[in-house]
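Changelog note: in this version the structure field was regenerated for every chain. One regenerated record is shown below for reference.
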Amino acid sequence: MSEPLSGKQFVLKYGDAEAVIVEVGGGLRTYTAAGRDIVAGYPENALSPRAAGAVLVPWPNRLAGGSYIFMEQLHQAAISEPALHNANHGLGRWSRWTCLQNENSVTLAWTVPPQGGYPFQLDVRTTWTLDADGLRAEHEAVNVGDKVAPFGLGVHPYLSINGADRADVTVRVPAKLRVLVDDNKIPTGTQPVDGTPDDLRTGRPLTEVGLDLGLAALERDSDGRAVGGVKHPGGGAKIWFGPAFDWIQLFTPDALGDHPASVAIEADELPCQRIQLR
């Protein structure tokens, strides 16, 4: 029997909750609780649509024209978003990650291989844990090469709205800044969200939220966590981000009519040279 397109399936269960992590891309395929979808998943024998559930390394979001300058040297990565001529969402989405553990949690690891456009070597691990607090992802990345390396990481969960009418769905992201972008969706600066439709700190109907919105400067609780999510008559879902993550990409693909009704709240970590994330 052939293996599904998403690779080996790693099932986590706790009470009435179940999450399925996949080998290809090391990401989250499905997550349900009490018979309700928490994320908009996809079939095991399908490619992850629009990076659903993916771990995005060694960069999240886009490299303009696929090129960047690091340590005064120009690098050219392959173009993966031809329409906008960008290299989008890193290199790990279509690689098979290695399972290191599978108990009440699963750790998937991937070594970023040196290659044209990214001649660096990193060991990356993501540990997914399902317990009484919900589903948690912890990320670790270590530079194991012989030179300084640029690095960034993002995760791309699509929170399900479980068939609710868009007008009845509220989206909340506790961000103080909006990211400005050019026509190719490359950041050009930021501006305060105060007094604008992009202020989602107290929640806003999904019908009023932009299709593809970058946000930054998150307000946090006493534990250093920023908490966002979606709410609708059937329930909702919360998502929280640790101190390493201060940039959010909000994406509402259901407006395009080619993805299950959902809201992607993507957490991005600032580019750095060597980091361990928690």
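Spot check on this record: The radius of gyration is 18 Å. The chain has no helices and 24 strands.
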